[in-house]
């Protein structure tokens, strides 16, 4: 079992606030004061750039806090284990997707009608300057960062201090809550539980990343199929 130091987790979050604030703040100033016309014409693209930078600075913060790629591999478990584990991760993801959708539908009278956040995000623009950065960010960079943070760092730290089931529930709840999408909380929570189980079972956040990247990529593909549908 990988041991995760709580101080490193706190350092990663602190570094993210500093790096993210600096990079996003600089970009905002340059774009809105140095390139006001471009910012007005490509507002969605600017938003995509800021999202990309937010995740890129999170990845940089995790690398700094955990000792580079070697530390991420050793401390946060981002390593290949076996193709069997990857297959298990995919099967687990499919089961979690079905269970999460059912839970979301059943709880919709209480939590509100669910709406795809991918539709809200990707429907903003078909400008190539928006699509080119946002798609790889959503499909790859965001899942990578979130698995390293929520499964590798957070769950890894919690499970060293609490029973594993409790740690899994807490990390899944924080993961779901961080998305600020109450109607989709059940689906995100179920996914978080499944991803924590895969990490606990296989010892690899690469496997939970495969789940996460698959989920986000499926959402992107389905969203564009709907958005680009004739009529």
Q: Can you put this structure into words, describing what you see?
A:
The chain is an all-alpha fold and 231 residues long. The chain has one domain (6-227). 82% of the residues lie in helices and 0% in strands. Helix 5 (83-111) packs across helix 10 (205-227), helix 8 crosses helix 9 (185-202) and helix 9 runs antiparallel to helix 10. The mean pLDDT is 94.
Q: Layout of helices and strands, plus pairs?
A:
Blueprint: H1 6-34, H2 36-41, H3 43-66, H4 68-75, H5 83-111, H6 117-122, H7 128-158, H8 164-178, H9 185-202, H10 205-227
Q: Could you state the oligomeric state of the chains shown?
A: single chain
SSE sequence, one letter per element: HHHHHHHHHH
Number of helices: 10
Q: Could you say which overall geometry the principal axes of the C-alpha atoms support? A: globular
Number of domains: 1
Largest sheet: none
Q: Pick out the low-confidence regions.
A: none
The helix-and-strand class reads mainly alpha
Count of strand segments: 0
Helix content: over 70%
Radius of gyration (Å): 18 Å
Query: What proportion strand?
Result: under 5%
Task: Name the average pLDDT.
Answer: 94
Task: Give short descriptive properties of this protein.
231 residues, mainly alpha, 10 helices, globular
Outline:
By secondary structure, the chain is mainly alpha-helical.
């Amino acid at each position: 079992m990988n041991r995760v130091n709580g101080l490193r987790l706190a350092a990663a979050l602190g570094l993210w606030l500093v790096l993210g604030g600096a990079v996003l703040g600089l970009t905002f100033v340059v774009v809105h004061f140095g390139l006001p016309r471009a910012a007005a014409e490509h507002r969605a693209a600017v938003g995509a750039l800021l999202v990309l930078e937010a995740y890129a600075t999170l990845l940089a913060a995790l690398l700094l806090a955990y000792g580079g790629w070697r530390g991420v591999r050793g401390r946060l478990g981002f390593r290949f284990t076996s193709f069997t584990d990857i297959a298990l991760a995919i099967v687990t993801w499919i089961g979690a997707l079905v269970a999460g959708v059912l839970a979301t539908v059943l709880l919709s009278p209480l939590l509100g009608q669910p709406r795809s956040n991918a539709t809200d995000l990707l429907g903003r623009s078909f400008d190539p300057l928006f699509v080119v950065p946002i798609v790889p960010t959503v499909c790859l960079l965001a899942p990578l960062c979130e698995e390293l943070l929520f499964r590798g760092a957070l769950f890894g730290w919690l499970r060293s201090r609490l029973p594993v089931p409790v740690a899994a529930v807490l990390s899944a709840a924080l993961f779901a809550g961080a998305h600020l999408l109450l109607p989709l909380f059940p689906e995100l929570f179920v996914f978080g539980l499944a991803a924590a189980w895969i990490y606990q079972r296989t010892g690899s956040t690469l496997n939970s990343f495969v789940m996460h990247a698959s989920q986000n990529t499926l959402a992107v593909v389905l969203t564009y199929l709907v958005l680009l549908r004739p009529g």
